Every structure is written in structure tokens, then in C-alpha cells.
Amino acid sequence: MAWNKDFESAFYPHAVAIVGLSKSATRDNRVWSSVWFILSYEELGFRGRIYPVNPKASEILGYKAYRSVASIPEPVDLVIVSVPVPALPGVLEDCIKANAKNIHIFTAGLEETGEEAGRELAKEVRQIISRGGLRVVGPNCMGLYVPEAGISSFLDVSTKSGPVSLISQSGGHCNWFVHHGQDYGIYFDKVISYGNAYGFDSTDFLEYLSTDPKTRIICLYLEGVKDGNKLLRLVQNIHREKPVIIWKAGLTVAGSKAVASHTASLAGQQAVWQAFFAQSGAIQVFSMEEMAEIAMTFLYVTPPRGNRAALLTFGGGNSVAAADVCSREGLEVPTLSQDTRDKLREFIPISGTSIKNPLDTGFMYMDLSLLDREINLITADPNIDFLIVIPSLDEIRTKSDEQVDSVMSYLSELALAKPNGKPVVITFYSFRSDPWERKMRARLLFELSNKGIATYQNLNSAARALARFVRYHKSPQ
Amino acid sequence: MAWNKDFESAFYPHAVAIVGLSKSATRDNRVWSSVWFILSYEELGFRGRIYPVNPKASEILGYKAYRSVASIPEPVDLVIVSVPVPALPGVLEDCIKANAKNIHIFTAGLEETGEEAGRELAKEVRQIISRGGLRVVGPNCMGLYVPEAGISSFLDVSTKSGPVSLISQSGGHCNWFVHHGQDYGIYFDKVISYGNAYGFDSTDFLEYLSTDPKTRIICLYLEGVKDGNKLLRLVQNIHREKPVIIWKAGLTVAGSKAVASHTASLAGQQAVWQAFFAQSGAIQVFSMEEMAEIAMTFLYVTPPRGNRAALLTFGGGNSVAAADVCSREGLEVPTLSQDTRDKLREFIPISGTSIKNPLDTGFMYMDLSLLDREINLITADPNIDFLIVIPSLDEIRTKSDEQVDSVMSYLSELALAKPNGKPVVITFYSFRSDPWERKMRARLLFELSNKGIATYQNLNSAARALARFVRYHKSPQ
Known about the structure:
The first copy, chain A, has 16 helices and 18 strands.
């Protein structure tokens, strides 16, 4: 199908019906269930009306319950259906009767079970949807998270909105991204978990998001797609304006079998998808972590002129490893110009350091005025397009815990100021593994990225994301 | 050169001289310096004698200081030299005079600087070493950590010994491994950081470790090697008895330049090293993390009969991702037999689960008797060689914090018992990112691996290590 504008009221609903809540539902049920929809709406401060539908209850969790969707006294913008699978046809008929056509089907257990019963029911459900003109997200999915509208399918998520949207066949991956995304400074406009895709498919949501002014970066987790040509055409049209980051899962034999058991999608052939990524302009990733890294890069890094990295690190072994990692990802690590090296040697001793690039000058973190002088010289070098700073947390800490704070606030000002017009990104290294280090690392990742500075879990992540980012901007497409 | 047995007293010294300690050295100097050698020896409870050598001091950190190595009143088993580079020749002459021939040269600033002065001095130092018959570790390195002997080049390390030894040109990588190794349940017999290798090279230490009964697993970090044929021959001879895990760094163009600035080694050509890994039987890794993962696997996993993994996970998206990850690393994820599936369906509901493999049955963690029944059926399946369990921490936590403990103690008993004779390894997943999750994950990784259960940071690590482990055991070499 194509996008249907009438569904848009479901993203910002005034009235939501939830069908399938148990009359004995309690607020302390934190295990993944339909109770989540009420708890999460409440957490996000949803300002519309919530209508539980259950013919056996008069009240659920303090909300007046209704016998049917049709008996709700106002037009319903979104119906969330979480009944057991045999009850699904009846509920959908009720929705048709009520003229409540925007439906999120949470219920699972259809053809993805691989059982005859599931397949039969799937056929019936699809016929009802088609006959009734229902606009369906799902089945077998978590549905919608729109912080601005106060609606969510996950608990303990941020109330803050952002310019990233996610379209995903997996609710688990959405759950991961809405929580872990915060560590990357990523907040969402819309998150759409759509499972088996009986109604809208990824391409329909993509069509919508491509013109949604609040979404600047589009992320997709795909197991299959119904209209591959449409996907190609859409991505080709919008990827220059809005980067499209895609994790196509199930490309291996084992993965493709797992897709059949999950959303019953056709995972498709590896070669077809290779051609898709070569032609579409989409940025391909292979995990949610990679998706988060590259989305953060698009959010917070100004495109550098090229792929030539300067690496400011600590230790000889780390320098070699850093150069290898960047090189394997397709970044260049050029030797600094003789002029830059002469100027660095005026204040950096020879013994135990290297200033060619990678720069092994860890002790500079002890004196921020020297560090500043060093970074200004590096970024002024004509051989360099951007700088990756890799402080060793334990070395800085040997001076004092406060020194870590001083170094990080210096680096964050620097990154925001872009010395000599060159992007600066940050990652960390620790020789030690202890509670201090883990806590500090988590704090710095969160705080720096939330200030708008691209801050990566490790150099592999940084190099991988930056290489893709540069390729995207250099590509002729 | 070849291994010299007279150096072995340096691994278990009775008397150690430290040349180059400042007379104003203080115990609160925790920044990487020669003071570390005294502090770390004290931390490890070194029971021999420590002799600071400094003609300008009578006492350093409470130890009587000596004018020269020759003036020390007993034979010295190990001299640690950390003087500024121009003083190096004089100190080495002093050692020759004292007949103290086991030397660790910490001092850096020789040919790795790329400067004429460094190259000249390097030549002189090499001549003195050769003429005096000195047995040298270094220069430009951290030297020796032997917990059993109470000697160390790093602070805050474990006093516990173990069957792993590490030979590394980088002191930083040693520092990482001796700290992070504990999270993998890895403890060391000997750690040798040997830098520029003027005396012993990796092959010499390898020769020694191959017959050292305390070392069962050998890890190497190499930037270059002087005698590649010797390395090949040695590894071929010993890798069946003692696995040899090698990270050869500097294989990219940028990495090879960084090697020149670090230990001035010749990094060599990629093709030559590819042939080495194909012929030697060594296990190749590309980071310290990978080295730790595979070393832990050799320590704690009984070789499975083949590469067919069962994956016990949570969530459909995670199942697809898990299958893809294992498949890409070269593991098979076969569908469970019909018989096993029929038996599982007797107590696992259809809706929202998958039992084909990967098994998406996360809620089983709520009832350990059901989980046990499930795991016994999976491991009994003739299509399966081993099991990777991937609990979702946040799902288990929704029941109670204590439930995490119950699940983990159940899983650790199970892994140690090897149900149906099949290895069980563990890794984790978390939808959430919060302090509880980070703390719990760190605790579980440490505790489980220290019980002798292979426990990985994530599924990528587990799949990568297990695939290499199976290949090692299947290889005809």
C-alpha cells in the first residue's frame, strides 16, 4: 500500500483505546506486557484520553473500561490491540464498526509461528484489514513512541524529542535504541515498531518521514521489504536531504531462517541487497550500536574535507593499534608536515613520545595550555582533515580525579569550537578495569554527547562511523 | 640470539638493582615512572632485596642507595635501568664490571625517535651489550611481571598466578591485559614487555616458555620479529601442546609507520604474515580484547565436537542478529530436530516464542525448573555441539534483583556440569543502559569467569572466540 495521511492522527492522538488489558492488571507489572502502554503513557505525561476496552471490567487501573471500541463516546485516533490471537478478528470487526481505523496490533502468534493455525488466522486477519480499510501497524510489534505526543511503547524512556526517527520490524531493537541512544545524545521524533507489516510497510513510513519536518535523520531496521523498488526509489530521492541508515538483518542463511520465525518476512538474497546499498545512497550498518554511532556522527560532526585523521593517543602499542584500526576502516593517517613537527618539538621532548601521527604524547593532559598548543598545531596541518582525541583515563586520573573534569571540559569547548575549522571527536582508553573507570567512562560518554560532541565507546566505533560519514559526503550520488 | 638459561634467575630474583631512581622520589608519584618498580614490588610482597643505585643519594624511599651496581654487596639477579638515555652506556659498563648481566632497560629514546642522536647512541648501546655478553630485555619497555616471584612493572596488579604468559613489545598492552584479564578470569605466569629487542627477541622468550611447565597458554603481541623462520618453527612445534595466540600489529601502511616510531621494528609485509598464520598453527587476533577472549576460551571451554551452536536468547530482533553474527564468524546455527521441538512445545507456548534455533524464550528465566528442562533438551539434540546462553538482564530484573543472582548461580552450575557433555558459555544482553545494568554486567563477567566459566562481553566476542577455538581443534596441523 501507500502512505495514508489519515494515520497521522495516530502519532499525536487525542483518544487512545487499549483492547486486551486484563481486568486484574496492576501497576507493578513491569514484565513486558500490554500494561506497559498505560504505564508508559502516564510516564510521558500523555494529555489525551485513555480508554481500556474489556467487556468483563468496569474500571482498569483507574480508567473507566468500555465493552467495545464502538461504545467509546468519542472518535478514537489509535486503537492498541493486545488480545490473545484467536480474539483478533472480532476486535478488528469492532474497530471497523466504530470507524476507528488506526490500529496498532501488538498481538503475536500468526504465520511467524510456522504452524497451520497461525497461517489460517493470518489469512483471515489480512482479509478483515483489507475489507475494512484499516490502517495497521503490526501485528507482532511494539508500535509507536512519540515523545512530543506523550505516547510510548516502552517504559522509562526520555520525554525529550530529537531529530532522529526509527522504523523497525523489531520492538526489541527499538527498546535498545530509545534507552542506549541517550548515551549517544540521540533523541527521537518518532519510533515505529511494525513487526509483520500487514498494513504499512517500511516504505510507507519512509514516505511519511521523508516529508516530516521534525525528522532529519532516518534509521531503519529491516528483515524484509515488500516493494524493493519503492525502497530504492525513496532512499535515492531523500538520502541527500535526510541520511538514511539501514540495518538489513537476516542476510546470512541462519539469519534468514531466524527472520522467518520472527516476522515471517522474506529476508532476500545477499546479492540483491548489496546492489541496493551500492545504488541507493543508504548507509549500511550491521548492529544497533553501529546505527547509533553513525546517527550521532550525522547529528554532531561537521563534514570534514576528507578522510585524513590525526590521532592523539597515549602509548606506543596503542598508537600502532590506532593506526591499524583507522587504516582498516579506510581512513588515512598521514604523517604530519615537517613544519608542524618542528613546531611541536619546541615543547615536546623526544624520549618516550612520537609526533608523526599517531601522536603519542599522553603526558600533555597534565598541562592543558601545552595540550591546547599541540592541538592547534595539529589541526592547522594541511595534511589533516579531522582529529580523534583518545585520552587515557587512568593516566589523567593519576594527577587527580578533578583533572579528568578539567581535561573533559577543555576538550568539549575545543570540539564545539572546531579549531582551525576541523572537526574534533572524542573516545577513551583505559589500561585499568575498575568501578571508577566504568563509572567515569559512562558519565563522559553521556555528558559529552549530550553537549553535542561526537563521543564514541572506543576507537573502532569512531573510525567505522567517521569512515562511513566521509564516504557519504564524498559519494557522487 | 638464542635463549640463555642464565637469564632465568631474573624471573625469580633474590636481589634487584634499580638504576635511575631520583633521590627525591616519593611514594605518591603514581604517574608512569621508574618509582613504579619499587611500589609494585612492595605491593606484590617481593621477598628479595631491592638496591636503588644513585651516586647522589644515600637512601631512596627507605632503601639504602648505592653509588653503582658494582658496589652492591651481593650478586644481582636483575638490574632495572631507567636513566636518561645519554647515561645508558655508562650504566651498562657498570653492570659489566659488576658481572650483573640480566638487564631490563626501561629507558627509551633510541632509534625509535627517528633522530640521528638516537641512532648513534643505539649503535653504541648494542656494541656494549654484545661485548659484555649482557642478557637484555628492552630497551624502551616495561620489563617483567611474575606474580609468583613478587615482581611487577605495573601498579595494582593481582598477586595471583595463572597458566597464561604474555610476550609483548608494548608495555601498554601488558598493562591492559594484567588489569582487564581479571575480568576474563585470566591470571599470569609471566608477562614480558621487551620493546626494541636489543637482546632477547620474542622467539627467545617463546623458546623459554615452550618448556616452562607453569605456562600452558602463550600470548604474543608483535610489531616485528628478527628471525621469522625461527618463529614459524617454534610455533609449529609447540602450538599443539600450548596454544599460541598472536596479535601481529602494524600490518597496514599507517600501522607499519607507527611501528617504526614505537619500537623501530620492521613490521613486514601483510602477505608474509598471512602465510605465517596459514602455516604456523598460531591463532591470529587483532586486539587485546580478542586475545583475552580466546585465551579465556582455551582456559575454560572443553573442545566441542564441531561448530554447531544453539543460541538461547530473548526477542525476535535479537534472534536474527545472533544468527547473523554467528553465521558471519563461521559457526553453524542448525534448526533443532523435530523430536526436540516437539518436546519443547509441551511446555513452551507458541505465541511470541521461537524454538527452532535461535531459541527466543526469554520468559523461561522466570522459572528455573522450566529453563533447566529446556536446556537439557537443547543440549541433548544431536544437531548441537555447544550452547551460548544470552540472558537479557533487564527482563530477569523485572522479577527481582535476586532473580538475577538465582539465574546466574543456576547457569554457572550448569556450565560447570556440561549438560549432555556439551559446553555452555554465557554472554549478556541489556535493552537498558543505566548504572544498575553496568554494575551488574561487570560483576557477572568477573564472577562467572573467575569461577571458570567462559563469559563474554557480548555475542560478537563469544562467536569470534568459539569459531577460532573450533577451527584450532579441527585443524589437521
